[in-house]
């Protein structure tokens, strides 16, 4: 199986590049952000709880997102592989993902980290916020809080994969096709 972790701060291009990767490699896309927004749209209890945190730019509890990913892995037993987009976002989530995959005799092939500076992230998210309707993209203060959450809780996840020799960083600034080409070079080397 080909199991990719697409990593980076909010607005780095994870969701954007995932769409291209699905087409090229025929993988199942698992975006915890999209799954959570789906729960919000459906008005579930989980969605209502998650919305409060997401609107403030904070992470949702580990147990919630790990449970969602576990269900999706079970529901896609025949998949050729997965793109994990926006997950894992904490070291606890990374450890849980390893255990889930190990129980299915599988493993992460590699993590690809998109590197983008804070100013560019803020600009991209504010631009998206103009028409996305996403409250977490709507104001600079919330965006800065999301970047702080990333630096405090998510950035250490890179070290977890580095220790396993599964980490590759890529420049996330440039045109979308250029960045996609850099990603595919890494994926093709797995
Ligand atoms: P996500 O949905 O994962 O939100 P994101 O990080 O903002 O999206 P992404 O990074 O994929 O956007 P993209 O760069 O593609 O998470 C939202 C919230 O959900 C989190 O804050 C948290 O509360 C919660 N959550 C999700 N997963 C969680 C977890 N595992 N644990 C706990 N909580 C969790 O796109 C950004 C913009 O940049 C787009 O407009 C795009 O068009 C543009 N763009 C992309 N590439 C570009 C390029 N090369 N040049 C210029 N613009 C570009």
Any chance you could write out the topology, listing elements then pairs?
Blueprint (H helix, E strand, L loop, with lengths): L1 E6 L6 H12 L2 E4 H11 L2 H12 L5 H14 L5 E5 L5 H12 L7 E6 L2 H15 L7 H15 L1 H8 L3 E5 L4 H14 L1
Parallel strand pairs: 1-3, 1-4, 2-3, 4-5
Helix pairs in contact: 1-9, 2-3, 4-5, 6-7
Bound molecules: BIS(adenosine)-5'-tetraphosphate.
The site of BIS(adenosine)-5'-tetraphosphate (B4P) has 27 residues, from α1, α2, α3, α6 and α9.
What do you see in this structure?
The chain is an alpha/beta fold. It contains nine helices and five strands, in the order E-H-E-H-H-H-E-H-E-H-H-H-E-H. The protein has a five-stranded parallel sheet with strand order 2-3-1-4-5. The longest helix is centred in the middle third of the chain and has 15 residues. The protein is globular. The chain starts with a strand and ends with a helix. The model has no long low-confidence stretch (mean pLDDT 96). Bound molecules: BIS(adenosine)-5'-tetraphosphate. BIS(adenosine)-5'-tetraphosphate (B4P) binds next to helix 1, helix 2, helix 3, helix 6 and helix 9.
Mean pLDDT: 96
Q: Give the helices and strands as they follow along the chain.
A: EHEHHHEHEHHHEH
Low-confidence runs of at least 5 consecutive residues: none
* Approximate strand percentage: 5-15%
Summarize the amount of helix as a percent range.
Answer: 55-70%
* Count of DSSP-assigned helices: 9
Q: Output the structural class.
A: alpha/beta
CA radius of gyration is 16 Å
Q: N- to C-terminal separation? A: 11 Å
Q: Shape from CA axes?
A: globular
Ligand set: BIS(adenosine)-5'-tetraphosphate
**Quaternary form:** single chain
Strand order of the largest sheet: 2-3-1-4-5
Largest sheet: 5 strands, parallel
Number of strands: 5
């Amino acid at each position: 199986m080909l199991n990719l972790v697409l990593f980076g701060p909010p607005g780095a291009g994870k969701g954007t590049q995932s769409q291209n990767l699905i087409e090229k490699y025929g993988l199942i896309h698992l975006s915890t952000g999209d799954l959570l927004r789906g729960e919000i749209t459906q008005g579930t209890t989980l969605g209502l709880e998650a919305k409060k945190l997401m609107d403030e730019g904070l992470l949702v509890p580990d147990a919630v997102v790990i449970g969602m990913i576990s269900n999706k892995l079970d529901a896609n037993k025949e998949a050729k592989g997965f793109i994990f987009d926006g997950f894992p976002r904490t070291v606890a989530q990374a450890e849980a993902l390893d255990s889930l995959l190990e129980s299915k005799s599988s493993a992460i092939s590699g993590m690809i980290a998109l590197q983008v500076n804070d100013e560019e992230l803020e600009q991209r998210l504010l631009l998206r916020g103009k028409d996305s309707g996403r409250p977490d993209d709507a104001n600079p203060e919330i965006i800065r809080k999301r970047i702080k959450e990333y630096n405090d809780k998510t950035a250490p996840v890179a070290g977890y994969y580095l220790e396993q020799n599964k980490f590759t960083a890529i420049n996330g600034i440039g045109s979308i096709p250029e960045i996609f080409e850099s990603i595919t070079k890494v994926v093709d080397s797995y």
